[in-house]
Write a structure and sequence with these properties.
It is a multi-pass membrane protein. This is Transmembrane protein 182. Its main location: membrane. Pfam families: Claudin_2. By secondary structure, the chain is mainly alpha-helical. It has one domain. Helices cover 63% and strands 10% of the residues. A hairpin with a 4-residue loop joins β1 and β2.
Length: 153
């Protein structure tokens, strides 16, 4: 079955679309769940909720009153780090493996002969691993603090 469809590609601050023809193909990468921005947005939102929850729990646990709140906050920071890691990994998979730049370039060159696409990682992409590292580190430290409070108080 051949049909004319509109492809949508979305980033967090950009959006583009183009028309194309889709043929029946069982190995079509567009059927996979990890290429859709909605799935990434859910993981990102869950990560932000985990960070806000962890911060609230840590603030409520001060000053060294409840080991349970420190442990819950630490676990929430670790969960946020894992969720943000998944977002970065899924983005890299999409850019490197899924985005078929050669066929996209060939299709666009029909309309514009000097079309040259480029894929660049932005500065925020390079800062994401640092944020992930510090989220995981904070989670581990708060788990250790919670354990220390439990043993000594």
């Amino acid at each position: 079955m051949i049909e004319n469809v509109t492809f949508h590609h979305e980033g967090f601050f950009w959006r583009c679309w183009f028309n194309g023809i889709v043929e029946e193909n069982d190995s079509n990468i567009w059927k996979f769940w990890y290429i859709y921005r909605g799935f990434w947005a859910v993981l990102m939102l869950l990560g932000v909720v985990a960070v806000v929850t962890a911060s609230f729990l840590i603030i409520c646990a001060a000053p060294f009153a409840s080991h349970f709140l420190y442990k819950a906050g630490g676990g929430s920071y670790i969960a946020a780090g894992i969720l943000f890691s998944l977002v970065v990994i899924l983005y890299v998979i999409w850019v490197q493996a899924v985005a078929d730049m050669e066929s996209y370039r060939n299709m666009k060159m029909k309309d514009c002969l000097d079309f040259t696409p480029s894929v660049l990682y932005g500065w925020s992409f390079f800062l994401a691993p640092a944020g992930i590292f510090f989220s995981l580190l904070a989670g581990l430290l708060f788990l250790v603090v919670g354990r220390h409070i439990q043993i000594h108080h």
